[in-house]
Amino acid sequence: xxxxxxxxxxxxxxxxxxxxxxxxxxxxxxxxxxxxxxxxxxxxxxxxxxxxxxxxxxxxxxxxxxxxxxxxxxxxxxxxxxxxxxxxxxxxxxxxxxxxxxxxxxxxxxxxxxxxxxxxxxxxxxxxxxxxxxxxxxxxxxxxxxxxxxxxxxxxxxxxxxxxxxxxxxxxxxxxxxxxxxx
Length: 183
What we know:
Elements: E1 2-3, H1 10-23, E2 32-33, H2 35-43, H3 58-63, H4 80-86, H5 97-111, H6 115-132, E3 152-153, E4 160-162, E5 165-169, E6 176-177
Parallel strand pairs: 1-2
Antiparallel strand pairs: 3-6, 4-5
Helix pairs in contact: 5-6
C-alpha cells in the first residue's frame, strides 16, 4: 500500500522498488491510495505493508518512535494491536517478548536524565529494532544546507531536520542581526 503524501511521489518510487525486488524473487504489488484511506486501513489493522516517511536516526527515536516500534499516533504504524496493547487498551494483543523489551527500552529512554545513559539506551534500542527489522529503509535524505549572511548570528553549525521536525530546529526566534539591521 502506498500513499502519495507530502509530494514525495511514493507510487512512482515504489514502481522502481517493485522492479528491483522482482529481480531477487520478491513479489511486491503496488496499490496507490490517499493518506486518509491508508490511515483507515491502519486503524482497522487491515494493511499488510505500506511506505511512509521516517527520517531515521537518533532524533526520531524519542519524537517519532513509530518508525521503530508499533506505537499509536497521527501517522500510520504497523502492528496496530501491539500498539494498542502498549497504550493499555483492552483491544490490544500482547506482542512477543522482543517487542516488549523494545517498549521497555523506549520507556527508559523517555525518562532518563543522563545524556550519556540515554545515548546508551538509544544505541540498544536501535540495535534491537534493527534485529527485529520492523521497517526497511529505502533512502535517507542528505544533509540540510543553509546559507547565512555574515551579520546573521546565533545560527547552529548543523540544522536538525528529522521525522517530526519538518522545519529547521531550533526555531528562528534565537537568530538575530548583528547591528540590528539587514545590511
